[in-house]
Each structure stands twice: as structure tokens, then as C-alpha cells.
Amino acid sequence: MSDLGLNSGASPKFTGPMRALGERSERLRNFLLEYAHSPIAVVGGGILVLLLLIAIFAPWIAPQNPYDLASLSILDARLPPGSESYNGYTHWLGTDGVGRDLLSAIMYGLRISLSVGVLSSLFALLIGMFVGLFAAYTGGRTENIIMRIVDLQMSFPAILIALILLAILGRGAEKTMIALIAVQWAYYARTVRASALVEREREYIEAARGQRLGHFRIVSRHLLPNCFAPLLVVLTVQVAHAITLEATLSFLGIGLPETQPSLGLLIANGYQYLLSGSYWISIFPGVALLITILSINLVGDRLRELLNPGMRR
Amino acid sequence: MIAFIIQRVFQGAAVVLAMSLIVFVGVYAIGDPVEILINPDADQQTREAVRQSLGLDKPLWMQYLYFVKSALHGDLGTSFVFNIPAIQLILQRLPATLELALTATVLAILLGIPLGLVSGLNDKRWYSRMIMAGSILGFSLPTFWVGLILILVFGVWLGWLPVYGRGDTVRFLGVEWSIFTLDGLRHIILPAFNLALFKIALFIRLTRAGVMEVVNQDYIRFANAMGIKKARLLWRHILKNIMIPIVTVIGIEFGSVVAFAVVTESIFNWPGMGKLIIESINHLDRPVIVAYLMVIVVMFVIINLLVDLLYAGLDPRVRLGSSNR
Amino acid sequence: MNAMPPPQPVLEVERLSTVFDLRAGTVRSVNDVSFSLKRGEILGIVGESGSGKSVTGLSVLGLIEPPGRIAAGSIRLEGRELTTLGDAEKRKLRGNAISMIFQDPMTTLNPVLSIGRQFFEVINAHRKVSYAAALDEAEAALVQVGIPAARERLSSYPHELSGGMRQRVCIAMSLINKPAVVIADEPTTALDVTIQAQILYMMQNLVRDSDVSLIWVTHDLSVVAGLCDRVAVMYAGRIVETGPVEDVLGNPRHPYTRGLLDSIPGDAEPGRLLRQVPGTQPSPLDLPQGCSFRPRCSQARDECRNELTSDQVGPDHFVRCLFKLGGD
Predict the structure, then answer these.
(1) Residues 178-237 of B with CB under 8 A from A
(2) What is the pLDDT of residue A313?
(3) Fold annotation for C11-97+179-319
(4) Helix count (H) and strand count (E) of chain C?
């Protein structure tokens, strides 16, 4: 299977037991050099870093605090891109229905979208990793039952699961996070189990068991490091999925609340003005969302090529 | 074969049962079922009457049995908003959703598979790269965002196509259809394409991967060495091999299309059950939510069952119960 | 009446060169290869993997695709030049006048088409026949290659047959349009030894009965000894020795042929160490000047760097070596 490619592939950086630190940085450097062989992936990576910086520093670099009601004026509502407000400030991307500077709103929205996407993916990764390792390590019936549940969940589309949960739980930030985590964990569980299974049969695991090393030590020192490469790939793909799904749910009005306007909510708020011609209120947040997802996918594709964790179905 | 079918039917029944349990626990046990099942404006007397009739003084497992029993009788409560049985409401909206989903799936097949074939057979050509770049874009673009762009470009700027509702419908086999009227057809183009886009990208990739794998197989080289014509090689020998996994995926993805119709219906105001469920969530019309969830789970189970049977029927290796490969 | 002219060869290959233009350079897979094949004759082409024996077969079938191309030489089938034919004409010949048997019967048949359907496809590509008529023909062909219950087998799928059965089906398919030449590319390598013996025996009978000419590509000299009339030994894209089987195997004149014969276990005395040819084949991107075998040859001298020719050493027996091993 292509899982074996992990150990013979371009970057054995994450495989095998822990390495010395010097060797690690050397491997990381080689890995980055190889990554740079694809220009489009470098562009994607560069844009992604830029977006992350914008998201992190939004409160300091945004021209306006879009949620400081005192700074808003209804007179500035629905100004087209490039127009000047009555107090002489230029809105490069225009303003929305309540006179908010769209550029600032997008920066803040990016911050919310990225943090919800990344956080939910990381939580899902932790849960999925634990479940996958547990399944692979215990084996037998327990493993069978767990993997049956994983397969069953994956046979339902993500949006449907999120819809069911939000229909039961109701709208809200934590609830949206719960839905996103519930949608994602199975992917991580399956990935971790697949790579752990390959390693499980290896001799050194047997040797570790033979030496009566503790369960935790065997799992954390031997099984886990071998799952890093495929997990990294799944993580990038899933972050993009989570951001898209959150935006979709928020757009439908069942995701994040109005007080946390992610990109999806900004698009939804602009939707009512779309038919009357104020296209920018919806379109620019949409472009920001699109660039975010595309850049993550470009990075993810390249990582998949380099790390090749055999996750095609 | 019979054993196989029976096994799958039982599996499906188990999934439906598990789902009913989740919905029951989610809707009935976590919240107050009275709040959920009757109109918030109802007076105290009505509340008590409902409480009695639901048997809320009884233990939880008996309540669940009662829920299952009424569900089996098609009774999942009455919509507060429309004041008709929830299940009836869902079934009224089902044809519009199915029509949209079917049209989208057909569109995805008609566009995705030929494009995948072209790019798989001429791997290195510029147009193959264009097709692949397009499919990456198709994967990355969120459905609702594409919907907005379609509305903006074709509805607002160009004004070519309507972007609201189903248009004229005609009654056929006891159900209203849009695709059989010219106006309805014009109305379905944009939403169907919107819904199909992701699947087009998927089918392109799948077909391409299949073609590229199969053309290098010995049996294709042998058929070529036996002088079989290129076109026939493609239609009979290559396509038949890749169609087995593709048909399976089409079946599975049909369920996903129905689920994603929620988004497209909301954007294009398509009066299907997807738009209904979003409205019901926003209005806290919980009987309708429960009915939707149960209907869609049953639908999914049936689709998966049909796909399994189809796969078994198509592949001679499965059909004859042998696993020699 | 005049004396009968010597029968014209069915297939003549003359100074054939097939190359692959790769980024790393040009690979000369087949280099200046000439041979001919008479009606009803079985020619064995022997060599290690990468010696160019399979590419020779594919060149004759017109199945060389970019980056490969036939760079020089001529291939004549019953007097007709094949290298200049267009794609459509080449296709008409394939499976009809020339056909091929592949190495691995497990992967050569289409898994989703029934055996009968695959026969129909092969027949229908060259002759307009009804499906029913094609099945009748296929049944007869299956009987000929010794498949029991042939009629029922036609509705079977490949996975229901054993490897030996599948190879018989492939052979029957390659013969169904009565070709003049069949090229078999190691068709018994993937099979058990007992099955291999059955298939070889069957092939000999088929050739005797049908007058077809056969090229048997293999790395196994013992198969050649039992099956073929003539043999061509290939090394690094060239034929280094060719001639009647009994001459070449009984009295090899090229050091490489000698080396191959010495490494057959069956010919060695029990208990004696087997000899082997030392070293490996040269990289096809960087062939040695002059004799390609020079780096591995114990007889090699400086003169071996010069270009050499193929010299006749017996009736129909040619050797490409300056210092031929001792004659009779």
C-alpha cells in the first residue's frame, strides 16, 4: 500500500522514533526546500501566512473598529468601493448596510473564520487521534465497533450531520464548534488508525511490548510519531473544510450568532443588497473566503504530494 | 445474494433506529418536549393535555417507545407554523428537492465524466491541465458563494435567467414538476448548476483517475495488440471498467446532493424541503425538524442499500460471490 | 519444371533500431537487429531483462509509442513494409496478420467482460460476424487449446478461470484470426512448471497444424531448447548470436551464449558449482564502444573497442564477436 510510501518517500522527517534535534532541523530545511519546488504552492503558502498575520493582528491594523458603534454613521451606508466617507476617510472596499468599513469588517471576519476553523479542527484532531490510537492499540472487537461507527458517520455528508446537530442544539458559537468537531473527528480517527496499523505490525513495537514498556509509552513514543505526516495533511484539508462549512452554516443563519460576524455572516448580510446592485457588500467577503480556502488547499495539495500518506479512497 | 440483501436491510434498519434514538434524546430528553412539540402561545390547559397524552410522567424508555410507535404511524407532530402534520409538510416539499437533486446529478454526470475522460486520456495536454485546474477551483468554491455569483452575473447583470423559485410547474404522475415546462426549465438551470458544480469537479477527478489507471492495464494493452479500434477500446473496454466505481460514487453522492440542496434552495428560494428545514430551525418549528431528520435518514439508508445492490449487479467479481483478484 | 524457389520468409526484420527519447538521453533499446522467420518456424529470442527482446516484439507489432520510435530499419510481413504504415493500417494488421501473447495471463483478460464477449471483440475488430457466429468460432478455438466444456466457458468471466486456463484462452484469442506471425512474450513465465510444459507441448502442436510462425521471447534457454527451431541471443539491444537451436546451444561461439548455458542448473553435473556471467548489463544510456559485452567478457581485448560485424560461422549461424569461442 501507499502507506509504505511514508517511510520511503520524500520526507521521512516525521517517521521513526524521535530524532536528535540537529537532525530534525536539517530535515525540516530539506523539506522546505523540496516544498519550494512548486511555485504555485509557494504562492499559496505565502498568501496563507499573510492571511494568518492579518487575522492575528486585525485589531491593530484594521482602519476602523467595525464593531465600535460610535464610529459608525448611517450616512456612510452602502458606499461603493473607493468612496470617501463624510468625514474624509476612504473606504477602499466600500461600506456595508450600516456604514461599516468593509475592509475592516473583512479583517475581523477573517479572524473569526480562521479561529473557528483552526480551533475546531485541532479539537477534532485530538479526539480523532485518541479514538484512532485507542482502536489500533486495543484491536479486536473494540476496534471493529469503533471503526464501524467511523465508517457510518463518514457515509453521511458533513453538512447533514452539522444540520442535525444545530437543529437539535440551536444556533451559537460553541454549538457551531461542536458541530464542526463532530463532523471532522472521524477523518482523523481513520487516518491515525491506518498509519498506526502499519506500524503496529512492525518489529520494534513487538520489541517495545517485549520490554514491558508501559502502554502510554509505546503509544506516545512509537505509534504516535508515525501518524504525524498523514495527520498534518488531513489537518490542512479539514481546516479548509471547516471554514467552508462554518461559512455555509453562518450564511444559512444557523451557525455563528450576529455578534460574531465571520466571513459567512458578512456574505449573508450583504446578500439582501445583492439584487439591488450593491454587489460589493457580499462579493468582497466572498473573495476573501475564496482566497483563504484556495491557499489552504494549495498548501494541502503540496503537503500531500510530499508526505504521500495514501489517503485517496 | 438474498442473504446479502437481508443483511443490508437489517443494517439499514439499525441505522434508522439509532438515528431515531439520537433525535429522540436530542429533541425530547434534552429540551422540554412540551416546549418543543406545541405552540409556545398555547395556554396552560393545552400544555397539560399534551403532557398527559405524551405520557411524560412515564419513564424515559416508555416515552421512546411511544415516540417510535407514533413515528411508525407517520405521526411526528404538527407544524406550529403551517398547522398541518409535519410529515405531510415534508412530503409535500420532497418532489421539488428530488427534482433539483436529480437534475443536478444528471448535469454533473453529463459534464464531469466526459471532461474527466478527455483529461485522463490526454494527460499532458494544455486543455487537460485547464480541466484539472477548473476542478480544483470547483472543490474550493463554497456552494453558497457560487450561488451568489450566479445570481449576480446571470440574474442581476445579464438578466438572462430567473433566480427566484420554481417557475411554472405541471402535474405529472401526481406531482408538480418544473422541468417539463419551459419556464420551469429556465428556473432550474442556475440552481441545478450551482448544486452540481462540486460534483462535476468530483466526477472529473474520479473519471480521470480511473482512466489513467485502466489504460495502463495489461488487458487494455492486449486489446490494443489485438487491433481493437480506439473508440471501441474506450467505450467497451475502458469505460465499462471505470463505470463500476463511478456508478457507485454517483449513488452515494446523490444523498450528498440532497443534503447540499439545503444551501442551494435557500439561495434560489427553491421551495423544497431544504429551504423548509432552515426556516423551521429559525422558527423553532421542531416537529418539522424531527420529521425532516427522520425522512432524510430513511432516504439515505435506502440510497446506500440501492448502491450496494447496484454495485453487486454491475461487477461480475462481486456478482458471483467470488473475490479472486 | 523449374526447381521450387526457396520459400519466401513470412517476416523479415532488417537492421531495426528502436530508440526511446528520454530526458536523460536516448535509450537504444533495439540496435541494428536483423532476423527472418519462415512459415511454420519457431524462433526463440533470448536475453536478460532489458536486453531489448520485448521491445523487438512490440516494434514488429507497431506498438511502440512516444517517447519511443523506430529510428531505422525495415520490417516486412509477407513482403509488405510495415514501418511506413499509418496507424489505422497497423491496427488492421494487429490481432489479424500478426498477434501477440502476453506474459501474465492473470492481468491480460478484461475482468468485466465475459470470455465470449472478448472473443467477439477480437474477431469483430477485423471481420464482420454476428455475435452467435463469433461464439461458435470461439468455442472451436477453445477446444483446440484444450479447454474442457468450452461452450460454458464462453459465458465465464476471467476471475473464474485458473492462470493456465486463462493463458490458453489468450492463446486461442491470439490465433482466432489466423495470423501469419504470433509473438509470445514470456507467456509461461508466470505459470507453474507443469502447466508450462503442457502449454509448450500444445504450442508445438498448434504451430505444426496451422502453419503459423512463432516468435517466442524468453529468458529461459531450456524452453528454447525444447520448443524452437532457431534462436537469437540478444544482449544490450543487439543480437550477439543466432542460428539453428542445436548449433547455437550445442556449439555456442559467443562468450555470452556460453555464459547463459553455463548458468542453467540442468546442464551442470550434480554437486558442481554453477557458473554465472559476472557483472551486469551496461546502462542503455551509456553503451560501451564496440562490443557491449566487453566489460563482462573474459576474452575481451583492446580490439573489442572497434565496431564489429556479424560473421557467419556455420550454415545460418552468425556470431557478433571478434574472438569466437572454438569451433567444432
Answers:
(1) 209
(2) 32
(3) Rossmann fold (3.40.50)
(4) 11, 12
